[in-house]
Specification:
Layout: H1 3-18, E1 41-46, H2 53-64, E2 69-75, E3 81-82, E4 88-89, E5 93-94, E6 103-106, H3 112-115, H4 119-125
Helix pairs in contact: 1-2
Length: 126
Amino acid sequence: MDRRTFNTTLALAAATAIGPALGAQPADGSAAATPAPAAPFRIGMLIYDDMTLLDFAGPADAFGRVRAAKVHVLAKSQGPVSTDTGGRVLPDMALRDAPELDLLFIGGGHGATALMEDAEVLEFLS
């Protein structure tokens, strides 16, 4: 699967999952069963050292295109996070400051092994 197909598939999956929660109109044009909420659909993207940059960038692009959604980039601290390619990503907020989320995305990478054993991250996920 190439990058464009992956991003398209991700965007369609997100829209399908998020649409009903946002009170989207059904395809047949009938009235929506639920009213639209006042707050946006909150998506959290957890970043960490030695993550695979493409695992973050592609989904971030797709999630950022979902109207009525707010994407929060989260990390253990607000300092820059180094990726597997040496690039750096700056989070919006630390885990301790994260709002209640409707969806949490965690990409892959070599740093995921350490992440799975990190007490602060595990506490956030529980």
